[in-house]
Amino acid sequence: MSKLFSPLTFRDLTLKNRVFVSPMCQYSCDLDGLATPWHLAHLGRMAMGGASLVFTEAAAVTPVGRISPHDLGIWSDAHALALAPITDFIKSTGAVAGIQLAHAGRKGSTEVPWRGGQAVTKEQGGYTPVAPSAVAFSPTYPTPEALTADGIARVVDAFAAAAKRAVAAGFEVIELHAAHGYLIHQFLSPLINQRDDAWGGDFDGRTKLAIDVTAAVRSALPHGIPLFVRISATDWVDGGWDLAQSVRLAAKLRELGVDLVDCSSGGAVPNAKIPTALGYQVKFAETVKREVGIATGAVGMITGAEQAEAILTSNQADAVLLARALLHEPNWPLHAAAQLGDDVAWPKPFERAKKIESAR
Ligand SMILES: Cc1cc2nc3c(=O)[nH]c(=O)nc-3n(C[C@H](O)[C@H](O)[C@H](O)COP(=O)(O)O)c2cc1C
């Protein structure tokens, strides 16, 4: 049995393998943040393809926490109700449903990418975003309002309430989105956070929101439900958030009961130079795992079965998260198993195709 297709246990949950579907915004809601048939088809198809853990896209914990007016939300019980058939379906395939809880901060109120990504007006469903400081991401983005202390407390509460709703909807893994230049990362990064109060300045101030959200969400969750946190391990800019600070943060997250740190990078500022290449972020997962002794997920340009297997057997990470490779080929995990010589179950209605795997 390969490492990639060996089970992985967190708390009360055992995942059948170590291939996870990385969160992917679909911008396919109407203006209400409710899941649509697109989400059922997309996430359901991913579950049918053999991944053990299928994450939703970033689900906004408040309406202004959406990147675009078409993002998925989890800010009311109606949102949980709309997601429940999706978690039911994912479970029926033998996979586990995970949800990424998110707040876009200053990257909120923008148009969907295929319509340009620029700021949207109120008439188009837009809203005034919030951030640590009143500084726009770029000239085409809306200028956010700086959060007050009360506003920050409401954000923390919104994450905790969303986590409870997610469990009620059938999600069995919760991931906090603290990466890619969204709200929590905006507080972490010295390139963005210009506050001079308890939520800014030194490492302790900048990490306070991440810590408070993590603690509130952990205590809102049943003990058996695993909690992951996605970080941008570096801003790729001198003077920005970096790997050394990520290691310090991950150590605190571990103490708070976080089960896995999902190591991505970038997104804080528009002008960073990112050396994208196969597996270019794996070294972040490796360093966090080694230095902190916490499970990590590797993500970013992982496209091949043998590449994924090597990441795990060389102890660089405990699991891999794939995004674009799975959009190309939702059956990637089923084919990867065959390539690594593992006999894994296919969905029963697909079994006739499994028999001709060798003819592909
Ligand atoms: C269509 C699309 C939507 C994405 N949306 C999210 C998201 O909601 N949350 C997130 O953390 N990352 C998001 N990402 C980033 C992916 O999860 C992943 O980290 C990135 O694409 C690198 O992995 P890959 O090389 O396997 O695609 C998105 C990526 C794509 C392609």
In order across it, which strands form the biggest sheet? Answer: 3-4-5-8-9-10-11-12
CATH topology (level 3) name: TIM Barrel
CATH architecture label name: Alpha-Beta Barrel
Low-confidence stretches: none
Q: Main beta sheet, described?
A: 8 strands, parallel, barrel
Q: Say how many strands there are.
A: 12
CATH superfamily: Aldolase class I
Bound molecules: flavin mononucleotide
Could you tell me how far the N terminus lies from the C terminus, measured between alpha carbons in angstroms? 22 Å
Give the radius of gyration.
19 Å
Estimate the helix proportion, in percent: 25-40%
Overall form: globular
Q: What count of helical segments does DSSP give?
A: 12
If you had to describe this structure to a student in words, what would you say it looks like?
This protein is of the alpha/beta class and 360 residues long. The chain has a single domain (8-359), classed as TIM Barrel, CATH 3.20.20. Helix content is 34%, strand content 15%. It has 12 helices and 12 strands. The chain has helices spanning 37-48, 77-92, 149-168, 183-188, 203-206, 208-220, 243-255, 282-292, 305-313, 324-328, 332-339, 351-354; strands at residues 8-10, 13-15, 19-21, 53-60, 96-102, 130-131, 145-146, 173-178, 227-232, 260-264, 295-299, 319-322. Strands 3-4-5-8-9-10-11-12 form an 8-stranded parallel beta barrel, surrounded by 7 helices. Helix 1 (37-48) packs parallel to helix 2, helix 3 packs parallel to helix 6 and helix 7 (243-255) packs across helix 8. The radius of gyration is 19 Å and the shape is globular. Flavin mononucleotide binds at residues 22-25, 57-58, 100, 177, 179-180, 230, 264, 299-302, 322-325.
